[in-house]
Amino acid sequence: MKLINWQSTKNTIKDITEAAIIKAVQNDYHALTMTNAIPIQLVYFIQFMLEDIRVTFRHDLNLDLGGVFIDAKDGDISMIPRWLAKVLNRNGVLDIQDIDVSSYVSRSLNRERIARPHDLSGIDPDFYIRLKDHLEASSEDDRERLSVSLNSFIASRLEKIAKLAAASPLSPEVKEKLSAEEYELYLVMHRNTDSFKQTVLNKYG
After folding, report:
1. Cα torsion 123, 128, 131, 133: sign
2. Tens-place pLDDT, residues 61-90
3. 188 Cβ neighbours under 8 A, 6+ residues apart
């Protein structure tokens, strides 16, 4: 068993870990802002990073960080916040045993593929956040294979959302089927199409 003396370097590890977390959050927030992402997406991203996930420790670890207390032995299985699991995984301290995201994504793509032309399949509010995390962890070959299906998936949903938004305000039934990003997109599309209709049909100002 390989033992790392975490206790003697706890302050250093804490500083490095906190810096890595802050940098990661800043990078993600910057990416969201640069792509005109909506604030609600950041809310779901934070919730996603705070989720507890299953991990298996490769080394003994005793750590007190930001209210998270870990006292684990090599081989122990535990549940810790995703943000911390990612930092420790990058440093070789543990392995992440997350849910089968590949199957989760495939099921969502298949539901949309077999849905009727005018029907939206339901996806989770944080679907695209989980998808992005999955793609970042995948190999280049896997990302390329998935990109074809994703392009069809996104094009299908955009077409349906555009038609629904042009026809009527967002209903509770449709809202339940949308991701956080799609929800905001629907509102923008409906507002703009409604404004366009009023402009072209109002002959007398």
Report:
1. negative
2. 888 876 778 899 999 999 999 988 998 998
3. none
User: Angle at CA 190, nearest 5°, toward 125 and 107?
Assistant: 30
Domain 101-201: assigned CATH number: 1.20.58
Report pTM. 0.74
Three-state SS for 51?
coil
The DSSP code sequence of 112-172 is HHHS-TT-PPP--TTHHHHHHHHHHHS-HHHHHHHHHHHHHHHHHHHHHHHHHHHHSPPPH
Which pLDDT tens digit goes with each residue over 17-64? 554 554 555 455 445 444 454 467 788 888 898 899 999 999 898 888
| Sequence ranges of the chain with CATH classification 1.20.58 | 101-201
